[in-house]
Specification:
With 418 residues, the protein is α/β, with parallel strands linked by helices. Helix content is 28%, strand content 26%. It folds into two domains: 159 residues, Lyase, Ornithine Decarboxylase, Chain A, domain 1, CATH 2.40.37.10; 247 residues, Alpha-Beta Barrel (TIM Barrel), CATH 3.20.20. The chain has twelve helices and 21 strands. Helix 2 runs parallel beside helix 9, helix 5 crosses helix 6 and helix 8 runs parallel beside helix 9.
């Protein structure tokens, strides 16, 4: 996907230097070819299963990205009313949208029911009661899957673990039978599935093995007790190689493991990948502002900051950082702290990173930034949101423009008494 040609780094057939010069930096760039390829790789891995791939919108919610996937037949995992609207605007039919999330408002539940979503993954008894009231007011049946918390350690970062008992997600496994029994007696609730999700950026299949086994055992038990379940939602979370020596499981291994457990269950399998599809498909292009020396340190100061890509500050996440101009094979290397211009010490992308010599005005690429990059961005320090471009072959299009400072300020309102 990223290749050097004639000394310059290309994404597909577009020189990233061209995007940096024409759009300005920082800027996100996504490969439509990579998005499509990663989606199709999931389809291949799950071949033979009755399944639906629901792209996790929270990973990358740009309309162009969603439309690219919707045109392939992708479903979508939405965790807010806004994300449901994004999926619908991108052309996804309601029956290909799963609505998840631990704190849904009544307005969001109403939107989901009116959109005729595939199912609503509920996470508590109060939510089921609230949903029943909304469905009754609309004279509709609400299709639900209860999200179970299986108390499984995904062996991932504590801030992206979602399946342990201390996490806020799902209902305790010890209460799952009572909750389904309660739901089955509500007039406008239809129990159609079971759901779970244990975390994000998993790099080992062992937690999946435990999760799939638990989910399948519960599914069979609940169906045996008379609940008409027809869907098993196993979530997403499969990791990607942020570091060159990362070796997460292949999709073929993941698919084979899933098939091993669901082979004797007659139901539709829903999976919700986000990072695995969008992460490697995108980069953050940034320019070096200054290089300065500290006490025993070299700081490379970029024009991209933590408000553009929050993951390193939030999770201590690692991203490879690459020169747009191809370094020579014998290029001398130095240790750099690669930082942004925001007035926070957390505004750091790398510490003591060994890099070929970095100079002011160099264009750099922060790799694997297509997931949880732009969607988590802010205008902290009144820095404009980063624009996004989508590449197809040798062409690119700006799919979100950079707002001007005047546009940002114009959203504020000064009350009449000031």
């Amino acid at each position: 996907m990223l290749t050097y040609k004639n000394g310059d780094l290309y994404l597909e057939e577009v020189a990233l230097r061209r995007i940096g010069d024409e759009v300005g930096t920082p800027v996100y760039a996504y490969s439509s070819g990579a998005l499509k390829r990663h989606y199709q790789e999931f389809q291949t891995a799950l071949h033979g299963l009755d399944h639906m791939i629901c792209f996790a919108i929270k990973a990358n919610s740009n309309q162009a990205v969603l439309k690219c996937l919707a045109d392939l037949g992708s479903g979508f995992d939405a965790v807010s009313g806004g994300e449901i609207s994004r999926a619908l605007h991108a052309g996804a039919p309601g029956h290909k949208i799963v609505f998840a999330g631990v704190g849904k408002t009544k307005d969001e539940l109403r939107l989901a029911l009116e959109a005729e979503v595939c199912q609503i993954n509920v996470e508590s008894e109060p939510e089921i009661t609230s949903l029943n009231e909304v469905a009754q007011s609309l004279d509709l049946q609400a299709p639900i899957a209860v999200r179970v918390n299986p108390d499984i350690d995904a062996k991932t970062h504590e801030k992206i673990s979602t399946g342990k008992s201390e996490n806020k997600f799902g209902v305790p496994i010890s209460r799952i039978r009572d909750i389904y029994r309660h739901a089955s007696h509500l007039s406008h609730i239809k129990t159609t599935g079971l759901a779970l999700h244990i975390g994000s950026q998993l790099t080992d299949l062992a937690p999946y093995r435990d999760a799939f086994r638990t989910a399948c055992d519960l599914f069979k038990m609940l169906r045996g007790e008379g609940h008409p379940l027809k869907r098993l939602d196993v979530g997403g979370g499969l990791g990607i190689p942020y570091k060159s020596d990362d070796t997460p499981p292949s999709l073929a291994e993941y698919g084979a493991l899933l098939k091993e457990f669901v082979a004797d269950i007659d139901c539709q399998i829903i999976i919700e990948p986000g990072r695995h599809i969008a992460g490697p498909a995108g980069v953050l292009l940034t320019r070096v502002l200054y290089v300065k020396s500290g006490n025993g340190r070299e700081f490379a100061i970029l024009d991209a900051a933590m408000n553009d890509l929050l993951r390193p500050a939030l999770y201590d996440a690692y991203h490879r950082i690459t020169h747009v101009s191809q370094p020579s094979l014998n290029e001398k290397k130095r240790l750099y702290d690669i930082v942004g211009p925001v007035c926070e010490s957390a505004d750091t992308f790398a510490v003591h990173r060994s890099m070929p010599i970095i100079k002011p005005n160099d264009l750099m690429v922060i790799e694997a930034a297509g997931a949880y990059g732009s969607v988590m961005a802010s205008e902290y320090n009144t820095r404009p949101l980063t624009p996004e471009v989508l590449i197809q072959s040798d062409a690119y299009s700006i799919v979100r423009k950079r707002p001007s400072i005047d546009e940002i300020i114009s959203r504020d309102r000064i009350p009449s008494w000031l």
